[in-house]
Design brief:
about 575 residues, alpha/beta, ABC transporter transmembrane region fold, Rossmann fold, 20 helices, 12 strands, about 65% helix
């Protein structure tokens, strides 16, 4: 938690102002009982109306100053806490966006969303409350205790006797509450995960009539969160009745013993009233502290979770020393004896893969399911780093490039088409924010998306729903391809990006792409032989190894794995 408080530094002046104003409010509250005691003892009992008016006017002025300080302190505390929360959320988001895919898999998407939103809010709340209450409550408690001692030392023994019970209760309940709040945050992650999966997979859920099962799954996660929250809140709720009991017993004891002293004349009525108010100040301050201790365990858990994100070191990082990357032929990709395994996997996904994708040519990768095709493509933009060997772009190891510089060379179309909420033009411009309408339309034309885009009344200004659910799978693929084309990169990476297209559209798109990407390196991962049979070079993968490299005709003659794939998709005459 202490580490995160460094995010308050930019707001040190407003935070300091809040603390100073809280101090002023507290001093005003401590002064009022003394003034009231003077009115009673000197004005009322002594029959001096002048003292009543003078001291009463002073009380009014002190009360006004205290109220003004309280309002101003709340304002400055809120500004500081909200700015703190905004900056912390931005820092967590910045760190998360710098994670490699390995960190995303390690944390999980749902928990990263929870940590960026719910956990940061918990910390923000404790910072806001702490600037106000954490300063006011201890000062009020110790100040009231000191003034109570100066008012009557014997009655103060009652307060000193009650304090150990109060502090012990707070410490015991807080100790039991921390593990419970950790459980609450884990259950929150689980609920977010279930909800996210149910919403993103709603089509599959409905197609298989699994609505009832998903409702049951959500109800279980929701019930687990509710149960964990109730356990935590029940534990923390024990504080309130215990503190109220001790506070009321203390008040009774003060009034009881104080009345005897008033009869004896050892304490005046006004002083007894002031002492009783100081006792209430002490006990209410401890009540406030107990409320803080209710919030603190959850905030502490949230702080640990946020710190885990901020302390995580991305496995994919830019080189330590920026230097000029040696340049070879523009757009040339070389896989040099590449081996790779996913974190935690028992077997390697790729083993000793070597081949070259020449500039200005189309290189295709084909193989059975799980042969490592998409994995191989993910190594080029450094979504993962190789375990052994090297991936070279323009003759330089991709690990020697700054990530932004490397990815600026690439136009990637992922296996699963991803569209963002906004307009069609916004999505196509995503790779090149400054692209003109003419460039957007040209990219859509090449990607064979112009026909359905022009059929929409708004054209490229048509809205795209979240996740692109208002477009079909083939339309989303074509818009994703247009996004890469608009960028005009040196290297195009197509990860099975034609699978949702019919054969006619596929053929037209490949023909247009050949003209558009002339001079660029094109690397295509595909399942369909028809998509890649005209490629300049075809790389066949089998269980993570290269089974053959060559043209369609060469592989038919020399590669048994490729021949099996072809025969499974074409008749004997069509294969040739």
């Amino acid at each position: 938690m202490r580490k995160l408080l460094s995010f308050l530094y930019p707001y040190r002046f407003t935070a300091s102002a809040a603390v100073v104003l809280v101090l002023a409010q507290t001093f005003a509250d401590l002064l009022l009982p003394r003034l009231m005691a003077r009115i009673v003892d000197e004005g009322v009992v002594g029959g001096d109306a002048g003292v009543i008016f003078r001291v009463g006017a002073a009380m009014l002025a002190v009360a006004v100053c205290g109220s003004a300080s309280a309002v101003s302190a709340s304002y400055f505390a809120a500004r500081s806490a909200l700015g703190f929360g905004r900056d912390l959320r931005a820092k967590v988001h910045e760190r998360v966006t710098g994670f490699s895919l390995a960190e995303f898999q390690s944390f999980g998407t749902s928990t990263l969303i929870t940590r960026t939103t719910n956990d940061v809010t918990q910390i923000q709340n404790i910072v806001h409350t702490g600037m106000h209450m954490l300063v006011r409550a201890p000062l009020m408690a110790f100040g009231s205790l000191a003034l109570a001692l100066s008012t009557d030392a014997r009655l103060s023994l009652i307060l000193l006797g009650a304090l150990p019970f109060l502090l012990g209760s707070i410490a015991l309940v807080a100790r039991k509450g921390v593990p419970l709040f950790k459980m609450v945050q884990r259950k929150t992650d689980a609920l977010n995960r279930v909800l996210r999966e149910g919403l993103t997979g709603v089509r599959v859920v409905r197609a298989f009539n699994r609505e009832e099962a998903e409702r049951d799954r959500f109800d279980r996660a929701n019930g687990d969160l509710t149960g964990a929250s109730l356990s935590a809140q029940r534990t923390m709720a024990l504080l309130s009745p215990v503190l109220m009991l001790v506070m009321n017993l203390t008040s009774i004891a003060v009034v009881w013993f104080g009345s005897f002293q008033a009869v004896e004349g050892s304490i005046r009525i006004g002083s007894l009233m002031a002492f009783l108010q100081y006792a209430m100040h002490i006990l209410f301050s401890l009540m406030i502290l107990s409320n803080l201790f209710v919030m603190l365990p959850r905030a502490q858990v949230s702080a640990e979770r946020v710190n885990a994100v901020l302390d995580a070191v991305p496995s994919i990082r830019d080189p330590d020393h920026a230097s000029a990357v040696p340049r070879g032929p523009r757009g040339r990709i070389e896989f040099r004896d590449v081996s790779f395994s996913y974190p935690g996997a028992e077997e390697r996904a790729l083993r000793g893969v070597s081949f070259v994708a020449e500039e200005g040519k189309t290189t295709a990768i084909i193989g059975g399911t799980g042969s490592g095709k998409s994995t191989l493509l993910a190594l080029v933009p450094r979504f993962y780093d190789v375990d052994a060997g090297a991936v070279l772009v323009d003759g330089a190891d991709v690990r020697d490039y700054p990530q932004a510089e490397l990815r600026a060379k690439l136009g990637l179309v992922p296996q699963k088409a991803v569209l963002f909420s906004g307009s069609v033009a916004d999505n196509i411009r995503y790779g090149k924010p400054g692209a003109s309408d003419e460039e957007v339309l040209a990219a859509a034309e090449t990607a064979q998306a112009a026909d359905f885009v022009s059929a929409i009344p708004e054209g490229i200004g048509a809205r795209v729903a979240q996740g692109g659910v208002n477009f079909s799978g083939g339309q989303k693929q074509r818009l994703s391809i247009a996004r890469a084309l608009a960028r005009g990169p040196e290297i195009y990476l197509f990860d099975d990006s034609f699978s949702a297209l019919d054969f006619k559209t596929d053929a037209r798109l490949r023909s247009a792409l050949k003209r558009k990407a002339a001079g660029a390196t094109v690397l295509i991962v595909a399942q369909r032989v028809g998509t890649i049979r005209d490629a300049d070079r075809i790389v066949v993968l089998d269980e993570g190894r290269v089974a053959g490299v060559g043209t369609h005709a060469e592989l038919l003659a020399s590669c048994a794995v490729y021949r099996e794939i072809v025969e499974s998709q074409f008749s004997e005459g069509e294969a040739v």
